[in-house]
Amino acid sequence: MGQPALSPRNAFTELGRIRLDEVGLDDMMQRIAELVHRTVPGTSDVSVTLVRAREVRTLASTSELAHDLDNWQYQRGFGRCLDASPSGDSVSVPDMSAESRWPEWAAYARDRGVGSSLSIGLPIQQAVVGALNVYGDETHAFDPAAIAVAEQFAAYAAVALANAHLYDSAATLAEQMREAMRSRAVIEQAKGIIMGERRCSAEEAFALMSRIAQDTDRKVRDVAEALVSRAVGR
């Protein structure tokens, strides 16, 4: 078993330097995968699975092989990374040739040159879970010490992923709120224009915009923007 290029302590320190306001969730996952690849002894490839609502996908990987092995499981709806994700458990496949739980996937992995694998669940929050997937070229690539390092790293990574997800969700919510405020502002401007032109109430002005939007298969905001642009042009 080759020696890792990075010690766990240095890996955790490097991960701790990542600022969530400077990287997105995808970049965070890619850095985690790369750090695990450099940290866990016996590792040849790494991927990170994210399960959010009904969506399952690999957001980061250190090779096309790891991505392909994950996709095989997603397409069929079963496999060790899918089992590890919701439970938070470690699922080890020490020898692909002797694996009986997922024999089809094991045979596929073995044909691709993979001898063993390790998946560690990352329970981020109730609606979002993930898994850290580690592949080895050799059988029994991950001894107890290597598994312990991977589990220690996964615990740290789960916290980082949870924070990144919360930050990403908060940023998305903030943008949605800004967009809603912009929409409301332009609609109020359009209502004012209509009220001035037609000498009608705010409710009647909005009802007119709603009727135009329905008749022209557009959003009310789009109708409002057109009215405001026309008024500015005049």
Structure, explained:
With 234 residues, the protein is an alpha+beta fold. The protein has two domains: 8-172, Beta-Lactamase (2-Layer Sandwich), CATH 3.30.450; 177-233, Winged helix-like DNA-binding domain superfamily/Winged helix DNA-binding domain (Arc Repressor Mutant, subunit A). It is 59% helix and 16% strand. It has eight helices and five strands. The protein has a five-stranded antiparallel beta sheet with strand order 2-1-5-4-3, with helices on both faces. A hairpin with a 2-residue loop joins strand 4 (116-125) and strand 5. The longest helix is centred in the C-terminal third of the chain and has 55 residues, at 144-198. It is elongated, with a radius of gyration of 26 Å. The mean pLDDT is 83.
The number of helical runs is: 8
As residue ranges, the low-confidence spans are: none
What is the alpha-carbon Rg in Å? 26 Å
CATH class of the largest domain: Alpha Beta
What is the architecture of the largest domain at the second tier of CATH?
Answer: 2-Layer Sandwich
**Mind summarizing the main beta sheet?**
5 strands, antiparallel
CATH topology of the largest domain: Beta-Lactamase
How many individual β-strands?
5
Apparent shape: elongated
Percentage of residues assigned to helices: 55-70%
In the residues, how many domains can be counted? 2
Task: Give average pLDDT, whole number.
Answer: 83
CATH superfamily of the largest domain: GAF domain
Q: How much strand?
A: 15-25%
SSE topology string:
HHEEHHEHEEHHH
Order of strands across the main sheet: 2-1-5-4-3
